[in-house]
């Protein structure tokens, strides 16, 4: 276990070589933690490992969570309802964004260029990654969101309406039988982002509920190697 430079969040780091040339920040779902996300990925894929990429599994700050009757929970932001037809909780999203931006800055200080850093996540973590990659910093190597969606009228959409250039590519995956974050919500999010200039790929897994799968992680590994290829120095 190690802490990244510049972040206050509890963090698990899957270190690769002594001097990696790329970084992946993998955000967990609501109520989980970085250690659980790392173990979930390991259980399904054997391991998500690249000789040239540091994988960071941060844990969200503990904050009162409306969907948990206001009890403290590890969540990236608050929600008043698990559905896209409500306003976003802008203040908590902004607070978390500052944490993750500090984490990204820490990776840059370690010598990793922004163009070799990917941010992504599962469920709420994927939604937070969309905010990071398309509202707060647009120079990343890529963004992925697994079983995730954005609220209607999202701040992300408003930012993209300004038509920024150089947007990172996107990978979204969603289970066709998702009973928590419905497939339609994820697909609508992807279509909205695409209409606003984001280039990417959406993959459906018809028999999957609100969960990850080995097949999905194989695709993620392939996509990550396209975004952060091996260099001469690894």
Overall average residue pLDDT: 91
Q: Report the C-alpha radius of gyration, rounded.
A: 16 Å
Residue windows where pLDDT falls under 50 for at least 5 positions: 1-7
Largest sheet: 7 strands, mixed
For this structure, what is the CATH homologous superfamily? Answer: Alpha/Beta hydrolase fold, catalytic domain
Give the number of DSSP strands.
9
Q: What is the CATH domain class?
A: Alpha Beta
Structural class: alpha/beta
How many helices? 6
Instruction: Specify the CATH architecture.
Output: 3-Layer(aba) Sandwich
Placed side by side, the strands forming the largest sheet appear as: 1-3-2-6-7-8-9
N→C terminal distance: 22 Å
Count up the domains. Answer: 1
> Element order, helices and strands?
EEHEEEHEHEHEHEH
Tell the overall outline: globular
CATH third-level topology: Rossmann fold
* Helical content band: 25-40%
| Relative strand content | 15-25%
């Amino acid at each position: 276990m190690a802490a990244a430079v510049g972040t206050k969040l509890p963090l698990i780091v899957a270190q690769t070589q002594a001097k990696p040339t790329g970084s992946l920040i993998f955000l967990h779902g609501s109520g989980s933690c970085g250690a659980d996300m790392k173990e979930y990925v390991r259980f399904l894929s054997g391991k998500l490992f690249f000789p040239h990429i540091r994988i960071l599994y941060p844990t969200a700050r503990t904050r009162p969570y409306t969907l948990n009757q206001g009890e403290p929970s590890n969540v990236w932001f608050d929600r008043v309802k698990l559905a896209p037809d409500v306003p976003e909780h802008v203040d908590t999203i902004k607070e978390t964004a500052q944490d993750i931006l500090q984490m990204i800055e820490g990776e840059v200080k370690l010598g990793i260029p922004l163009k070799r850093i990917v941010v992504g996540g599962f469920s709420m973590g994927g939604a937070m990654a969309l905010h990071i990659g398309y509202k707060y910093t647009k120079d990343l190597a890529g963004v992925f969101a697994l079983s995730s969606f954005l609220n209607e009228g999202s701040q992300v959409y408003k930012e993209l309406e300004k038509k920024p250039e150089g947007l990172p590519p996107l990978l979204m995956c969603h289970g066709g039988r998702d009973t928590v974050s419905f497939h339609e919500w994820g697909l609508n999010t992807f279509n909205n982002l695409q209409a606003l200039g984001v280039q990417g790929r959406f993959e459906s897994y018809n028999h999957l509920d609100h969960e990850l799968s080995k097949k999905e992680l194989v695709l993620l590994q392939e996509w990550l190697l396209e975004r952060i290829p091996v260099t001469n120095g690894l």
